[in-house]
Hints:
With 482 residues, the chain is mainly alpha-helical. The chain has helices spanning 3-56, 59-69, 74-103, 109-113, 116-124, 127-132, 136-157, 164-180, 182-186, 205-222, 224-233, 235-244, 246-255, 257-272, 277-312, 321-327, 330-346, 351-376, 378-398, 406-409, 413-429, 437-459, 462-481. Helix 11 packs antiparallel against helix 12 (235-244).
Amino acid sequence: MNKTVKNLIYNGLYQLLIIALPIITVPYVARVLGARALGENSYITSVGILLGYVIILGMNQLGVREIAKISASKDELTITFSRLWGLQFIVGILVTLSYIGITYRMSNNIYYLANIPYLLGFMLDISWFFVGIGEISRVVTRNTVIKFLSLILIFSCVHSSNDLLLYILINSSALMLSNLVFWMSLRKKIWTTKILKNLFSSKYIKSSLILGLPQIAVQFYTNFDSVIVGYIAGAVQLSYYDQSQKIARMLLALITSTSTVLMPKLVKLMQNDKDNKRSSDLLKKSLDYTLIISLFITFLIMINVNELVPWFFGNKFSPMINNMFWVSLIIIFISFGSVFSNQYALANGLYRIFAIPYFLGAIFSIISNIIFVHLWKADGGTTTIILTELIVCILRVWLVKKNFNFKVLFRQYWKYFLTFCVSLLFCVRIHIVVSSNFVSMILNSFIGTFVFLLLLVIFQPPAVNEALSFIFIKMKHYMTKK
């Protein structure tokens, strides 16, 4: 099997697991911890994630790109890995010590200190090395085992809001352990005894900052926004705001996972592709199918949101139905923009173009959250994140406009959006409601899927034509062979 296809399958299966596990844990945790405790957890986790990205400092992009450039030379891999991870290690030590010094003085410091393994997990994270050498299976297998162990611990130990500390500790320790196990396989790929000798180099500081600062900036409107909402509106409103994005964020991980796998492939393609034809064709296909899938998933969430919230989170979270309906739009904006940022800008080393939308998005998000959250609480936060992701997506496209013929790239895209709008209006008008929320979702999803696919076949945009032609050729070949 082609290695890229194999990696796509592995990564896809792992992203499905990431989606499946929260589907099991979130309804349970939402019911046993309650809105207030979940809000406190979101506040503490948001701080941890923001600091985690400071520690990583762009390694998930820079590390993958630099490792992917290297041939099978073990000596060269050792030097490059040591210099990259050395930077991550030094920043991790400084951030962790600062975090302990600041949170130790807080009244509820026990919750913050329980999150220290989370920061250590980011410091030990070398998954970028295995992604760079194309061994996605190692990343998938190890993380799968740890995630199942954490799942068992959550159900075994977390039973009420009094177990919030234990819940934080389980999640933070799971991340640290999942990243620690990567080091067991590292000695087969590099000379681990030589890591300390090459531990630090100033070579990657500039590139790391160029890539890392935008990632930190994006945390200001994907995680630090939770800190602002929690500070202004309180733990309960923060819980509604944060939980309403859970499903959209989980599904986004699946859609954008293709960028993680395709980036090393595109780096190698662009090094050998003089006229950019092969890489442009791959980018076009990725953009088409990303748009179709993101529109379809957003559509399914929107038509099922009235039943999905009480069924998944419990009736106590019904006030966030409106938030989840509208915030699902970020699936479209982030997925579409990620093709230009990860598969094009990063693969070509266009770090400035990659960075600008994040900084502008962060500035807009902070100002808008302060204004809108004061006015509308959780609804204000939801409004801000939707507008922010739309602006970032538009900037991603606009900044590369000189490098593409958009008439060709976006040919007949109006058909995809028309399919989405017509399907949504139809299914909202004929929405089926029965006594069981789950059955209602199944029925509405079945009807919605039929309508969505039917309209795609009727309008026949390019990607659908290509898919139908492929299916027809395969069927014809099968019938002839038979």
